Amino acid sequence: MDKQLMRKQFLALRKAMPAEERAKKSAAIQKAILQSPAYQNADWLFTYINMGAEVETIPLIEQAWRDGKEVAVPVAKANRVMYFVKITTLDGMHRTKLGVYEPDIPMEEQVFPTKDTLFLVPGSVFDRQKNRCGYGGGYYDTYTETHQVQHTVGICYDFQVAPAIPVEPFDRPLSLIYTERRTIF
Fold it and tell me: Is the pLDDT of residue 1 over 80?
């Protein structure tokens, strides 16, 4: 099966999940992340702000602030240009044409991940070899390659983990994947 078809099928399954089931599974994933050494040892949490049926990240963001961690979220521009900026509140976010919530912070204020950064990555489908298929833009693969991000963590619902997905030369495997049922190392 090709990536486009896999992406479409898995996103349809995710979208069809009832909201209460999504919230329950998101809470289990959040708990696993918060209990992990990767989170506990991190100075920074680089994460997306969930949209639609994605695993919910806002509770993680709020907990990171309570735990004294810095939080950065992405701002995406044309041509696979993505940068991360520090946020201290969820106020003032705007929705892009693609439906993504972003802060209105210029590229001049970008921050960069360090070896002690926990870097959460969204996706449409993942596999047991820690590969991921995103949404087709190549933003995360480009960013993590360019900035040599050390600790990339995929978060998804367990049904989004396929036995294998097609891999292309520019795809970068993750460090690990959290689902509501397991951690894939």
Answer: no
Can you tell me the distance from the alpha carbon of 19 to that of 21, in angstroms, rounded to the nearest whole number? 5
Domain coverage including residue 85: 3-184
Lookup: tokens for 97: 């044409």
Q: DSSP letter at 150?
A: S
The total number of structural domains in the chain stands at 1
* pLDDT (tens digit per residue) in 62-71: 999 999 999 9
Q: What pTM did the predictor assign?
A: 0.94
Spatial separation of the C-alpha atoms in residues 104 and 91, rounded to whole Å = 10
Q: What b/e sequence results for 23-36 when a residue is b if at least 16 CB atoms lie within 10 Å of its CB, and e otherwise?
A: eebbebbbebbeeb
Give the largest CA-CA distance in the chain: 44
In this structure, what CATH number is given to the domain that contains residue 57? 3.40.50.10420
